[in-house]
Amino acid sequence: VVDGDTFFIQNGQAIRVYGLDAPELGNCYSQDAKDALTKLVLNKKVELREPMADHNGRVMAIVYVGNTLVNEYLIKYGFAGSKGQGQSESDKMNKANVYAHENNLGIYSKKCYQITPPDPKCTIKGNVKDDKSQVYFREDCKNYDQTIVQKYKGEDWYCTEAEALKAGFKKSINCS
Questions:
Q1: Quick check: 53 and 59 in contact, CB under 8 A?
Q2: CB 158 within 8 A of CB 167
Q3: How far is the C-alpha of 97 from the C-alpha of 20, rounded, in Å?
Q4: How far is CA 139 from CA 65, 107, 132, in A?
Q5: Are 146 and 106 in contact (CB under 8 A)?
């Protein structure tokens, strides 16, 4: 098991659990996600359904171990977030994501999903966009109140713009 959403099968082929995104190693809840996937699949017979290749040459699949839909389990208990995909199982996976979010589990807990800063003096929000670009928002920036710090995605709070810049974030175009 490589991380919370990738593992190798006996023939050496990398398998990416399809339709979800687990935290990258080092981000909030990443070790928990890796441990959960390890417990689910390591040294067990897995069934791969609806396999397809991703841009990294890995096989992406709906993964079952016995009657357990691994994709749904990882999402439902907050080890990963749904990407709104999942082929024949997308409805189950999306419902699992709602459950995890409503119950503040794992990546959606206050530890990893933050609306207010842990330190009131550090209010700059470092945000990672879908295209992986990194931007920061000051309190006077447009959309500041709608921006959530999702630490499981590598986002964080900063006390100064210099800190945010040093961490690789650029000022949002929504800031004057």
A1: yes
A2: yes
A3: 10
A4: 46, 24, 22
A5: no
pLDDT digits (tens, 9 = 90+) for 1-49: 999 999 999 999 999 999 999 999 999 999 999 999 999 999 999 999 9
Degrees (nearest 5) of the Cα angle 98, 103, 104?
A: 100
User: Largest alpha-carbon pair distance within the chain?
Assistant: 55
Indicate the DSSP class of residue 1: -
Q: Return the sign of the alpha-carbon dihedral for residues 165, 167, 172, 175.
A: negative
Q: Under 8 Å CB-to-CB from 75, ≥6 apart: which residues?
A: 20, 81, 82, 93, 96, 97, 100
Q: Position of tokens 């794992």?
A: 106
Please state, as a whole number, how many other Cβ atoms lie within 10 Å of the Cβ of residue 154. 19
Q: How far apart are CA 93 and CA 71, in angstroms?
A: 7
| Cα gap 81→20, rounded to integer Å | 5
Token pair belonging to 66:
């016995």
To the nearest whole percent, how much of the chain has pLDDT over 90?
88
